[in-house]
Amino acid sequence: MSNIPPLSALRAFEAAVRLGGFARAAAELSVSTSAVSHQIRSLEESLGARLLERSTGIGGIRLTPAGSSLLPAASGALSLLEEACSQIKGVARQLTVSANAPFSSMWLARRLAEFSARYPETPLNAIIQEGEPDFSRYDIDLAIVHVAEHALRSDDIVLLQEEVFPVCSPELQPFASTAVCRCRLLQEAHENSPEIDWRNWSDDFGLPEDFETKIVRYSSFSQVIGAAVGGAGLALGRSPLIDPELRSGRLVRLFPVLSRPASWRFVVRRAPTRRHRMLDTLIEFLRDESGTKE
User: Fold this and answer.
1) Which domains, from first to last, does the chain contain?
2) Where along the sequence do coiled-coil regions lie (predicted)?
């Protein structure tokens, strides 16, 4: 064990990388910034290698090849120690999951409750994060991110691929199926998703040139679906997010054979450093639920 550096130095190194700087690491560890700097310098001297490139500009630090090699081992070891200490104290470590608001409310929330019932010893914390998740600030263990197909990363785990099609309330369907051009068109404001833009469906329905005056735009997909369920107009539904509404009969497809694949995916991303012991179990559970498990 003589080759293992002091735990305090490894903690300083891991915290500085995870939090993006010495000052944030110092605040988390309740020490001075100079103490963090000294611990990391001592760690580098003991290993005979530079671990971090320091900068006074934006970003602060970045990993060297040696630092990239050490980080997973240091993070994993610290996570195991944290888990063991929590178990001895009788306090289970919280597992934090993030996703955007529509996915959280329409797909994820119920499944996290089911996971919690199956593994009651693991406290769950679900938070809303739009766009790129801030893993370090919110101690996120697992993020579910809505990503354009062309922006997928090599380590992304695809959880869901959506299908888009027009939907409405069952009361509106008889009228809407013969007079789309006379209905209000409910639309989510999303610039980079052509399949949820009514302008790209105008040829399918022979909409008149002034049809855009009938579009009502919302900032959230949840708002769109709420309005559609209330009979306010036609929406471009995203399955499987709206599947519960379809099964309950609160929404119906306008035309059963008309649909388009979505250009975005819901993907799973792990925290880049710390690992929760139940993380793989949760990922496997969610993949089972989505039907994407290999």
Assistant:
1) 7-89 (1.10.10.10), 95-155+265-290 (3.40.190.10), 161-262 (3.40.190.10)
2) none
